[in-house]
Amino acid sequence: xxxxxxxxxxxxxxxxxxxxxxxxxxxxxxxxxxxxxxxxxxxxxxxxxxxxxxxxxxxxxxxxxxxxxxxxxxxxxxxxxxxxxxxxxxxxxxxxxxxxxxxxxxxxxxxxxxxxxxxxxxxxxxxxxxxxxxxxxxxxxxxxxxxxxxxxxxxxxxxxxxxxxxxxxxxxxxxxxxxxxxxxxxxxxxxxxxxxxxxxxxxxxxxxxxxxxxxxxxxxxxxxxxxxxxxxxxxxxxxxxxxxxxxxxxxxxxxxxxx
Length: 259
What we know:
Layout: H1 2-6, H2 26-34, H3 50-74, H4 82-114, H5 119-144, H6 150-179, H7 191-205, H8 210-217, H9 222-225, H10 228-243
Helix pairs in contact: 2-3, 2-6, 3-4, 3-6, 4-5, 5-6, 7-10
């Protein structure tokens, strides 16, 4: 994701299990997500930072888990587009797996080098990633078989939401204080990279309060911010296709304010 790429240069998680059971209600998954209070996106001095960008991705993961739950609940009734949901799952799982990969290979080693005391807790976060990976693999199978597999897909989303609530909260408590002082976002080196960042920010911006976004955009190079209006408009259209629309929200923490 954009913020993690820019930075490149606690035990007790439940085991991931996806036994067959009734499709979880959206309200049930929302109750899980609502146990997470989130972390303020802006620092105490009101500034945005690389930490803000990291947490915008976390906000998007929480947001999309809730939206998948809603969409899967409606699918057996003939509402929704199974093909679009499968495509969105592929984006979501790619974003989450890539997010963890950059953390494990670039961000966490850098933080450990600068702060050796973080080695053990960061190793625990990496272990969390290994718990999440099998759920993503099972999700690939379930979403590919929609609409007939909506119950299995819903169970996977519920288990994933439970893991993410605990993991993201621990990660933010541990990492965010070390990233609040980082404000330099490197300029993309090619048009392809610029477009990749624009698409990533369009995804992570959705539902974030405008005053937060304004401060984040101030940190980005002009060649990137110039592409954001079109990328964000395209993402809104994508939300209509996949979700039938998505709550706009105006979040000031890493948890969507409509949860």
